[in-house]
């Protein structure tokens, strides 16, 4: 029995599998976090089908693409606004630079057909026809997005670019008997790619083709173009067995809009580049079952070796976490583990789908697969922190759109530029209107002495009013400066106070976060120990039950043996008593017979003595009367004393008892 977070039956729909497994990874991708999804299992267990799907029912990969473009479709940047560099980074270009880049690409000899005019390949058109229109809930509308895809494979521990347009037969090369490529002009061996580490310690493939895509159809067409180049072969267990690990990488670049909500912010520090890797692992297989030879045998060995390295890395990570050790994890032993080293170090979320084939022939290998997959759940990796905010006001895009709509509406209503009606007087005009009006300055007569004095008087009044206004303005300016200085000092003091408070709060929060992390690690350690103790207790309880059952069975056996022993003892005692009584009677009978025989012999001897005495003492003429011979019947009627003799054992001889009995009988007769 093995435990997993979720178990799906054989009739599960692709949508249900996607909602549980892949949808959270796509949501994290849009939030700026990395993700990794494996399909793992025995060869022929359905890993590629789970990833790509079938016509009419797309798998995880087309559904991920559809969800991405359904979520960010309205917020995509124009093509070439985002530009990936050679060091796993991304730059942002202005609209003019992007336009020039598009014109330069269109001027190439082999221009690409626009996505809207391209006819879909009927071979995969039904796979991407996803009707549920799934989308992420939290999409930052003040950002612009760009999607880049790449497709690589790891074959015989070498990395190859499946989107490379090089004119070479990299899938079906011609090999000679020495397992080396034939040197002719038709075949050019594919160039393997190199893994490097960027400034953020993330691994990437140098020189890998990365295509910017603007729709689900365009992205899946790129995938299908690389899928046709992937290495597959016919084996005894699978007609189309994958001979390499394939990795489809989706990169999502996003940058915030400026304060006006119109153009992309031209700051590289504000760009976020997240990545989702969909990995279709080649199946583990046993060569004695696949009957592999030559190239197939070498491929199987490299596949099993890379999967074994993946398992070793997971086991060492688990051991380091459980026991606090610091063993070196052998990432570099395989290109597969080296490529995803940063994921296992905590730079993203990792999920694994275990595909199991119910065939009885795959039983042993399926057990190994599920045992390894269950162990991987015990490995905990640290999650990266959320990216910092850009500091701009949210809702900029919507406000800019609302402003443009309102401006266009006013233009339509007025039929011209906004504000073409009568202009309102400005503040300067109102200020000059408050001065005394100037009298007429026209001189009609040379002797006119009133016009100039009136003009001089009006100008003097205006001058006085101007001086008064200037003094008042200077006073107001001084007061305003004083007020501003007081306000600045109060603001500075408040800022210092707030900064101090914020520093204290940040220290408190940092301490609390550290304490929380420590407690979480302690809780996880204690939970694991509790789980181990529970399993140990369960094992001990099972052993206790088994021992109790064994003890009860042995006690019952001992009771049966004791009862059998008692019955046997009783039976033996009865047999001994019966045998003793039998031998006592036999001894008495033989003693009585011997006594009678001895009595007869003594009587005969007495008679002979009496006769001899009578012959000697009496004359021959006298015939003495013959005494009566005692009969055996009267002797039998006389009670005879019983001799005490030990009861003989059943196997002891009884002959020694006879002389003893005869001797005591003779003594008794003489007495």
TrEMBL record:
Comp. bias intervals (Basic and acidic residues): 619-640
Location of this chain's protein in the cell: Cytoplasm, Cytoskeleton
Binding-site positions, ATP: 41-48
Pfam families: Kinesin
SMART domains reported in the protein's UniProt record: KISc
Domain Kinesin motor, first and last residues per copy: 1-379
Coiled-coil segments on the chain, per record: 502-578
Keywords: ATP-binding, Coiled coil, Cytoplasm, Cytoskeleton, Microtubule, Motor protein, Nucleotide-binding
Chief location bin: cytoplasm
Recorded superkingdom: Eukaryota
GO molecular function terms noted in the UniProt entry: ATP binding; ATP hydrolysis activity; microtubule binding; microtubule motor activity
One GO-annotated biological process of the protein: mitotic spindle midzone assembly
GO cellular component, one term: nucleus
Protein name: Kinesin-like protein
Organism: Setophaga kirtlandii
């Amino acid at each position: 029995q093995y435990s997993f977070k979720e178990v799906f039956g054989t009739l599960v729909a692709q949508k249900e599998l996607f909602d549980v497994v892949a949808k959270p990874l796509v949501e994290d991708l849009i939030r700026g976090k990395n993700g990794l999804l494996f399909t793992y299992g025995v060869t022929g267990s359905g890993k590629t089908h789970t990833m790509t799907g079938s016509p009419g029912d797309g798998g995880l990969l087309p559904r991920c693409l559809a969800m991405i473009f359904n979520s960010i479709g309205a917020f995509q940047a124009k093509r070439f606004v985002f530009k990936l560099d050679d060091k796993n980074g991304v730059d942002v270009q202005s609209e003019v630079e992007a336009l020039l880049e598009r014109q330069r690409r269109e001027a190439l000899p082999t221009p690409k057909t626009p996505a809207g005019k391209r006819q879909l390949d009927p071979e995969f058109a039904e796979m991407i026809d996803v009707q549920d229109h799934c989308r992420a809930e939290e999409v930052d509308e003040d950002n612009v997005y760009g999607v880049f895809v790449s497709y690589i494979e790891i074959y015989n521990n070498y990395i190859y670019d499946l989107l490379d347009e090089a004119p070479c037969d990299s899938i079906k090369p011609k090999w000679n008997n020495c397992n080396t490529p034939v040197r002719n002009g038709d075949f050019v061996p594919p160039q393997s790619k190199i893994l490097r580490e960027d400034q953020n310690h993330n691994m990437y493939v140098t020189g890998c083709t990365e295509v910017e895509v603007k729709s689900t159809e365009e992205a899946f067409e790129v995938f299908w173009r690389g899928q046709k180049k992937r290495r597959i072969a016919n084996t005894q267990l699978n007609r189309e067995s994958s001979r390499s690990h394939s990795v489809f990488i989706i990169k999502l670049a996003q940058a915030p809009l400026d304060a006006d909500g119109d153009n992309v912010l031209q700051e590289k520090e504000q760009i976020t580049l997240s990545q989702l890797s969909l990995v279709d692992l080649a199946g583990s297989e046993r060569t004695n079952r696949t009957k592999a030879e030559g190239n197939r045998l070498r491929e199987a060995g490299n596949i099993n070796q890379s999967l074994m390295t993946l398992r070793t890395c997971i086991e060492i990570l688990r051991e380091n976490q459980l026991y606090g050790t610091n063993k070196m994890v052998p990432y570099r032993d395989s290109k597969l583990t080296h490529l995803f080293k940063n994921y296992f170090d905590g730079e993203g979320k990792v999920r694994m789908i275990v595909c199991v084939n119910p065939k009885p022939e795959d039983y042993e290998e399926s057990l190994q697969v599920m045992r390894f997959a269950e162990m991987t759940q015990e490995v905990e990796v640290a999650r990266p922190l959320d990216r910092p905010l850009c500091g701009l006001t949210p809702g900029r895009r919507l406000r800019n759109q609302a402003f443009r709509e309102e401006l266009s509406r006013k233009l339509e209503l007025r039929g011209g530029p906004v504000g073409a009606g009568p202009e309102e007087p400005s503040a300067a005009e109102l200020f000059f209107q408050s001065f005394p009006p100037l009298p007429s300055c026209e001189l009609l007569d040379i002797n006119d002495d009133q016009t100039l004095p009136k003009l001089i008087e009006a100008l003097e009044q205006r001058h006085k009013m101007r001086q008064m206004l200037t003094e008042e303005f200077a006073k107001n300016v001084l007061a305003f400066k004083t007020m501003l200085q007081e306000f600045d000092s109060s603001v500075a003091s408040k800022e210092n106070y707030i900064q101090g408070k914020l520093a204290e709060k940040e220290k408190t929060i940092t301490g609390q976060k550290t304490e929380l992390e420590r407690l979480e690690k302690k809780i996880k350690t204690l939970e694991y120990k509790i789980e181990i103790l529970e399993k140990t207790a369960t094992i001990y309880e099972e052993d206790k039950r088994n021992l109790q059952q064994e003890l009860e069975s042995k006690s019952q056996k001992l009771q049966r043996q004791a009862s059998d022993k008692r019955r046997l003892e009783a039976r033996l005692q009865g047999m001994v008593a019966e045998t003793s009584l039998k031998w006592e009677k036999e001894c008495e009978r033989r003693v009585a017979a011997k006594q009678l025989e001895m009595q007869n012999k003594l009587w005969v001897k007495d008679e002979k003595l009496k006769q001899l005495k009578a012959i000697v003492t009496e004359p021959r003429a006298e015939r003495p009367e013959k005494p009566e011979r005692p009969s055996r019947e009267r002797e039998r009627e006389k009670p005879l004393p019983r001799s005490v003799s030990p009861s003989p054992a059943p196997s002891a001889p009884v002959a020694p008892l006879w002389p003893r009995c005869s001797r005591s009988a003779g003594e008794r007769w003489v007495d």
